[in-house]
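Most newcomers find our protein records easier to grasp once they have seen one. To make this concrete, we reproduce a full record directly below:

===
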Amino acid sequence: MEKEEETKNTLQAEYKKLKADREEWLRAGREAAKYTIPSIAPENDDLEFKKNTKKKLLTPNQSVGADGVNNLAAKVTTTLLPPNQAFFRFKIDKASVKQLAQEQGEDPNRYEQEINSGLANLETMLLDYMESFGDRICLGEALKHLYITGNVLLVFEPKRGLKYYPLSRYVIKRDYCGNVQTVITAEKIAFVELPVKFQEELIKKRIELMIANEDENKCKLEEKEFILYTKFHRCKSNWVTWQEVEDIKLEGTQGKYPIDIAPFIALRYVRVDGESYGRGLIEDYFGDISYLDYLSLAIKESALAGSKLLMLVNPNSTTSIRELSRAKNGDFVKGNPNDVQALQANKYNDLQVAQATVDRLEQRLNRIFCMKAAIQRQAERVTAEEIRQMAADLEEALGNHYALMAKEFQLAYTKITYYHLRKEKKSQLPDLLREKNIKLTITTGLEALSRTSDLNKLVTFFDVMTKLAQSAQIVGAKTDKLADLVAASLNLDVSGMFYTEEEKQAQLQAMQQNDLANKVAPNIVNKGADMLMQEQEEST
C-alpha cells in the first residue's frame, strides 16, 4: 500500500492528471497552427511516444498568418527587450531622499543625484548581465507560441538564461484570480546527462526488473532517453522546486525562491478568470484566417486549371489534328480556323469576386498583425506624416498587450535576473527588490516604449522655453513661473535643474573676481619684470 501511494504522488502521475485539463487549449492551439506555422504545435508531439513517428506537416494555402505572427513577434521582442537599452528603472522615493539628506546634513538635490547615479550604474550592470544570455532569441520564439496557442512557459536557468516550453511540454494550475499554484514541465533527457549517482541507481533498478545480460542492458540504457519532470510549487512564503526521473527524485535539484521572485514566467495572451490557460491571438480571428485559407486554395486550384491549355477540334472538320501537332512555327497547314478553339473555363468574373474577398481579408489581418501593408494606403502620393500617424494608431492597438507583458514578463524577468546576479556576486550588491524606498518600474506603452521618453520631454521643454523666453521678457512675465507651468504640462520634474538666486550671486562674484584677477595679473607681472631689470642694472 505504501508503494502504491508513493506512485500516485510522483510527478509523472500528477502530470498525467493535469494533462487532461490541458487538452481543450492544446487542441485549439493545434487548429490555429494549421493556418499559421504548423511546426509550432504539431499533432504528434507527445513525449510518451516510444518512437518518433514524424508525419509531414501540412502547409497552409496562404502565408499571411505566418508572416503576421513572425512580424508581430519580432516587433514585440524588440520592444520588450530593446538592444543595449534598459526597459526598467529603479526609482527612489523623493520623500525618503529628503529625510535621509536631512539626517546626514547634505543637500537633498545633490544627495538625490548621487543615489540616481548609483542606481543607473546598477541598471547598466544588470543590463549587461541580461545581454550575456542572448534571451532575445528565446523570447522571439516563445512569442510565436504565445500568439498561436495562447500559452508558453519561460524558465530562467542560472548561467544559461531563458528556456521556453511549448504548451505540449508543461501543465499548470491557477486559482480563480489567475495566481499560479503549480507548474510541471516534461522534457526528454539522455542517460549520459543524468547525475552519476542516479545512473548507477537506475542501472541497478533496471537489472533487478528484467534481462539477465548486464552488459547488453547497460548498452541499451545508455542509448535510451528518459522523461525529466520538473515541478514548481507555491507555498506560503516561497517557491519550491525539484526534479524526478523514472519516479525517482534527483538529489541536488531541490531549490527555494522568494514568493515574489518566481523562477518561471507563465505567459498568456488573453487571460480569463477561472481558467488555468489562456486564449491565443489567432483564436480571436480564426474565422478570417481560415476563410482566407479556403479562398486561397480555391483560387490556387482555379488558376492551375485555367493555365492548362487544351485545344478542341471539330470532329466533322477537314482539319487534320496530326498535321497541326507536327507543324512547326511558320508552317502552312490546310484547315478551317473555326474548327479549332482553345478550351476556356469562363470563370474570370467569379475569380474576381474571390480575389476581392481575399484582398479585404488580407487587409484586415495585416492591420491586426501591424504589417506595413496595412499602414500605407493605395494612392499615388502618401505623406510621411500620414504614415507616422497610421503607424502610431496601429501601435496603440497593442497597448493592452504591452501592459500585460510589462506585468507578466518584463517585471518578472527583471526580478529573477537581478536575483541571480546578486547570487553570483555573493550578495555584494544591495537588495533593491527588498528595499522599501526603491521602486522597480517598467517603461512600456506607446509613449514610454523606451528610456528616451524623458529625453524627448527635456528637448521639448527647452524648445518651448526658447520660443517663449523673448515674449515673456517683452510682456514682463516671470520666466521661472513659466518654466514650472511648461514642465507641469509635460509631466517633467525640473526641481534642482535651475540655479537659485544665491547660486547666481555666487557665480557672479566668482566671475567678477576672475575678471579682476585677469586685469591685475599682467600689471603685477610687468612691475615684477621692471624691478628685476632695475636690480640687474644696479648690480652691474
